[in-house]
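Report of the visiting student (M.T.), summer placement. My assignment was to run the structure pipeline on a short list of targets and document each run. The first record concerns Thiosulfate dehydrogenase [quinone] large subunit.
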Amino acid sequence: MAATINKPAIRMHAAAATRRPVDYVWALTRIAIGWIFLWAFLDKTFGWGFATPAKRAWLEGGSPTTGFLKGTGENALGGFFGALAGQAWVDWLFMAGLLGVGAALVLGVGTRVAAAAGGLMLLLMWAAELPLTTNPFMDDHIVYAIVLVGLAMANAGATLGLGNLPIVQRHALLK
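After the run finished, the structure tokens were exported:
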């Protein structure tokens, strides 16, 4: 009897053997930014006292968007963003975004979708803060959005993540 060879396992092994140091840098960057999104979700949900006090936790009836969006009132688009503050659908969409983007980036699955969704969230937060006070247009939201594009382009989920699973490789939406 001839031995059968598991081709996906060989592909994954061969891919791991061809990793470059920059692949690990992108992977660690992916995990770090994913953790930023995931931590924001956890702190806002449970009020662990880092950015959100316990009494303002989402589980205690607090609104995860009110603090930031109410603070935009004097900004160029403050009227628009301020009107969104505290609305249940905005809170749910924001929290789903934080959780989805964070989990996808940490796990390395759906990195492209997470990069697009996270980039959109970051651009909206950037727009809410206009005009910027320390730089005419550039801030950390834009830098993170650019890095998310790089993560997607570098296929960063394939290193130190689940991006090499056969199901992920077969379905572009999961990459």
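Confidence is low (pLDDT under 50) at residues 9-13. Residues 21-46 form the longest helix (26 residues). I thank the supervising group for their guidance throughout the placement.
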